[in-house]
Each structure stands twice: as structure tokens, then as C-alpha cells.
Amino acid sequence: MDMTLEVIPVPVSDLDRSKKFYEEGCGFKVDLDDEVAPGMRIIQLTPPGSRCSIAMLAGMPSHPDQPQMAPGTLHGLQLCVTDIAAAHAELTAKSVPVTAIQHVGATGWEEGPGETWNSFMFFKDPDGNTWCVQEAPSPLSER
Questions:
Q1: 124, 131 in Cβ contact below 8 A?
Q2: For the chain, where are the E strands, in sequence order?
Q3: d(CA 132, CA 124)
Q4: What is the pTM (predicted TM-score) of this model?
Q5: Residue 35 and residue 132: Cα distance in Å, rounded?
Q6: pLDDT digits over 61-104, tens only?
Q7: Contact indicator for 27, 50 with CB cutoff of 8 Å
Q8: What domains can be seen in the chain, in order of their start residue?
Q9: Distance CA 100, CA 48 (A)
């Protein structure tokens, strides 16, 4: 049985502000922005080249087996790129608050790119949800 990860809910406080951040700042494609029932809105966006999307929800009833997260409490989402310097430049140009490119060295986190699979940058969305961007040696389709 295949089991694919396709949608990750991201808890946000302002759907329109977050949609603008992810669409215009991060370059995610808006797949859906719909009021699915009165007062219930879903915005689904997909990073370029990804098969997994994020979903931001408002007005959805909570399920007892899946309590809702507070805005800004989702941490460690990870994106992969094949050129971290280019991705850093693009995100910076779009006013996404990315850190400097870093790698894990002998003393912990050190500034600058590292070897294969060891170059990262980090950013937060407007609510404080955190993202890691890692440089991969090749596109996913080639790994």
C-alpha cells in the first residue's frame, strides 16, 4: 500500500496575510481558496516542484482526535532546493526574512555553505511557524 504525504496544515491567524506571504514571498502556487461551507475557508498552496501542499484553514470544526494547533506553533517544516544561494537570493528579494546560509560544523551551526546535504537557511512566516530550507545534490526525481 502506498501512503503519500500530500497536505500539511499550517496554523495561521490571518488567512489573507499568510496567503500573500506564501504566494508572493515564497512562490507557492495557490491551488484552492474556497469557502467550503458558511464561515469555513480553506487555502491550499503548493511549493514549486512539490507534490505536498500546505493548507490554511479558518472556521473548521475541531475533531477530537486532531486538535487544532495555535498559530505559530508548527516548527521544522523542510523544503529542499538544488541551489541554496539562488533560493536565498530569490527569497531575500521577495522580502522573506531568511537567515544567512549555514551548515553544521565542528562547533555547531556555522555560517556559509557546507558539503553535500549540509547547507541550510531558515525563515519564519508572519505567525512564527518555522521553515528550514536545505540544499539537495539533485532534484528529487533524480535521487
A1: yes
A2: 7-9, 29-37, 40-46, 53-58, 77-81, 102-105, 108-111, 120-124, 130-135
A3: 9
A4: 0.92
A5: 30
A6: 888 898 889 999 999 999 999 999 999 999 999 999 999 999 99
A7: no
A8: 7-60+72-142 (3.10.180.10)
A9: 22
